[in-house]
């Protein structure tokens, strides 16, 4: 079926444009921009709403296998569709970890329950223990899109360098977490006056810089393709920019929570604001926003991490880290747009175009021949977030009760409607 979207505000992150126009979809692909409606096409009047490439959310945790009570493929897919996310890049930190072709094939089959696209990262080392590399070649053949031990930082540098060398020979992308494990062990917040006043164990921002410098040194030594999952401190930006200037094959991401929240949001030990890495200072937050604007940080993700009530209703030090974010990623990101810090093409460059390009996916573009994975949204619609209205099984969001702007009107995957606002 041919669908023609007219009177749409087209957000094109590849061209960097934001303009009124039209878009035609046929057989799951974009076939024309700013052309007339084909004869017999279904015409959708967007009413001046924004039409952008669907979000490619890199770093999502789904609870299958092992923690299906926290999130299933179906519930994650429904939350993603409601949030304008058309492609989920799922993490391997499941129970058991996705470290064998058999486990990867299992989750790939299970992902068919979701209304959106799901691709999986696999573990870089067996059990994510940092000692023995996984069967990277077989996992690539089984569909692994990248390799990561997520928040388990390898302490055995020689084992890590061997895995990186082998991954380079196969062209595999590795996703690393920049932390010095000794310094960051047991930390619940960023060290400083606030942590001291609250009596919480903190980690110095230098732990991220030290971990990043080690990883970049290994990248320079091995020639590996490397993506840094989260850069959150000003101290790390110079090292990242220098690595890029040297021509190393390095990109970096950040979570939406570190772009829109700071350490003071923890308040009186509010565990919905506990993250890995912990929230940083306001100065760091503003520097990260500027780094996204400048292209030093390439990707914005939700780092969706579902947790049940029992694991969050604990003393701050003992509570689980992370928050759900598939459905709140876009309205939270639009805070940066409404604050005048990022325009919409720049925002969607980090949400859609850059992650798709880095992962070798055809999504994330408004171009002829590209998959018609689209999100139609009104960036100015205000609402108060109710966490119990989220489609995710878990409701651990820091934005509960927050005033937000930006409503997803419809989400399309391969031209098919997978979500429509009521």
Describe this structure in words.
With 422 residues, the protein is α/β, with parallel strands linked by helices. The chain folds into 2 domains: 2-50 and 374-383 and 402-420, Urease, subunit C, domain 1, CATH 2.30.40; 53-358, Metal-dependent hydrolases (TIM Barrel), CATH 3.20.20.140. The chain has 13 helices and 18 strands. Strands 1, 2, 3, 4, 5, 16, 17 and 18 form an 8-stranded mixed β-sheet that branches. Helix 4 (157-170) crosses helix 7 and helix 7 (206-222) runs parallel beside helix 8 (234-245). The longest helix has 17 residues, at 206-222. The chain is globular and about 65 Å long. The two termini are 24 Å apart.
How many β-strand runs? 18
Measured as a percent range, the helix fraction is 25-40%
* Name of the CATH homologous superfamily of the largest domain: Metal-dependent hydrolases
Q: At CATH's second level, what is the architecture of the largest domain?
A: Alpha-Beta Barrel
- State the distance separating the first and last CA atoms: 24 Å
CATH first level of the largest domain: which class?
Alpha Beta
Number of domains: 2
Name the shape in a single word.
globular
Number of helices: 13
Q: For the residues shown, what is the average pLDDT? A: 97
Q: Tell me the CATH topology of the largest domain.
A: TIM Barrel
Structural class: alpha/beta
How is the biggest beta sheet arranged?
8 strands, mixed
